[in-house]
Amino acid sequence: MTTPEPEAPAVPPPGCPMHAAGGPSAGPAQLYGASVSDDPHGLYARLREQHGPVAPIELEPGVEAWLVLGYPELLELTRNEQLFSKDSRRWRVPAEGRLKPDSRLLPMTSWRPTLLNLDGAEHQRLRGAVAQTLGRIDHRQLRETTEAAANSLIDSWGPDGTADLIAQYARRLPLLVFTQLLGLPAEMGPHLIELISHFVDSSEKSVRANAEFQAILTDLVRRRRAEPGADLTSWLLAHQAAMTDEEALHHLVVILVAGNETTINWTGNTLRLLLTDRRFRSTLAGGRLTVADALEEVLWRDPPTQNFPGRWATGDTVLGGQYISAGDMLVLGLAAANADPSVHAGDNIAGNRAHLAWGAGRHVCPAQHPARLIVETALETLLHRLPDLQLAVPANELAWRPSPWSRALVSLPVLYSAFTPPRAAAPERPSWTPPTPSLPSPSTPSDATSTERTADSGKPARRSWWNSLAGWWSGR
Fold first, then answer.
1. Is 6 part of any domain?
2. Domain containing residue 39: CATH number
3. At what angle do helices 206-226 and 245-276 cross, to 10 degrees?
4. Contact of 311 with 86, CB cutoff 8 Å
5. Nearest-angstrom CA–CA distance, 237 and 204
6. Is 342 in contact with 332 (CB distance < 8 Å)?
7. What residue numbers bound the domain in which 179 lies?
8. What is the number of domains present in the chain?
């Protein structure tokens, strides 16, 4: 796909979001606060109707950007580094003095020497280091570590048969695993959770939290440079890419924030689906779908990262019928692109991995396979231990965090049998290996590095705990 040469409009001036298709009355929508947390799907549908596949938005008052809602347009955005760079130093809003020094957007948009902010050969050097470092993780050991951490959390719950699956499970579990992977002390986990939450949510404490978080990791890099261990930090420092301490520091931030936050939200959103959607839970318990299918359903409908900053235009151009000016920010609307009616295959998406939850192009997420293994193990362990989980509040009372980037629940209160049987030994299972990519259907556009379909014949065997889950659900 090639990007059309920019046309020369008589009016308005190129790239002015206030004068996008639809006129001033259809100006930028707020991509912050209640507008994006209460009903994001409704917001994206309205923006698509008003503006088409690329819509003008505000990230905070007076800070405009473009939200890419279309599936083909998002693929074009992520593939064309010549026109759409990852280098946030190109952003004209701060260059024009319009970004406040204490802006909540800074932690997620500031330039860092990482694979997230670079293009070309330098990006490939750093991405290779991260991907190969993650590739050294022993998947069997990772599954065992995750299962042990999950069982420890479940065992710590009180005897009253109640729990908050966000605060007491989804938010705690990944850091228990990631601290071991990176070589951090396990007791650091709760504090890291708090710090990450502040700057991912772009809260009023985000700038201070970001500074403290980086100080912790700076100390870790210094210690591992002096005394290497069998952990991701040491492997990253030893990689042939020869990262500096500063580069290693910022890539640890990427691994922890992106990996941890995605894992938390993916776990919570899948549990919500199982507990609130009778159709899906009934189908799942009936034996036709597995945990892997449930995870894929969430990646399509409620991906853990719903929007991601971003790309910056290197020159004046046109995308999705909108005039984009040099220096404009473009936000990847991952959830919106997944719902693009021009390419969506309808409700039958089981086994279809052509979604854009992991991004696309050369910047597709390199940590998706370890993340999938952690989340799948977390869900299987929880449902094996507590097969009678049920929501403790009406589904419409569940609240979402007011983040423009993450799709994450505030809490997920549940009830379960207070007296559970002794923990059974985990069933023996084969080592996990990444799925083999295959081509998507001809009707669905795809990026070879980020989208795939899996055949039904490749689905894993049914887990023994499905029988108890099915028995409980059939009585409801």
1. no
2. 1.10.630.10
3. 120
4. yes
5. 33
6. no
7. 17-474
8. 1
- Alpha-carbon distance of 471 to 476, in angstroms, equals 9
Per-residue pLDDT of the chain (476 residues; tens, 9 = 90+): 444 444 433 334 333 444 443 344 457 899 988 878 889 999 999 999 999 999 999 999 999 999 999 999 999 999 999 999 999 999 999 999 999 998 989 888 989 889 999 999 999 999 999 999 999 999 999 999 999 999 999 999 988 999 999 999 999 999 889 888 999 887 787 788 778 777 666 667 777 887 888 889 999 999 999 999 999 999 999 999 999 999 999 899 888 877 888 999 999 999 998 888 776 566 655 656 677 788 998 999 999 999 999 899 999 999 999 999 999 999 999 999 999 998 865 555 655 778 999 988 888 888 899 999 999 999 999 989 998 899 999 999 999 998 889 999 999 999 998 655 555 555 554 444 444 443 344 344 434 333 333 333 333 333 332 232 222 233 33
Among residues 17, 47, 74, 36, the alpha carbon closest in space to that of 356 is found at: 74
In a domain, 454, yes or no: yes
In a domain, 75, yes or no: yes
Task: Report the alpha-carbon distance of residue 131 to residue 254 in Å, rounded.
Answer: 12
Sign of the torsion angle spanned by Cα atoms 180, 183, 187, 193: negative
Is 7 within the bounds of a domain?
Answer: no
- The label of the residue with tokens 């939290």 reads 209
Contact between residue 165 and residue 412 where contact means Cβ atoms under 8 Å apart: yes
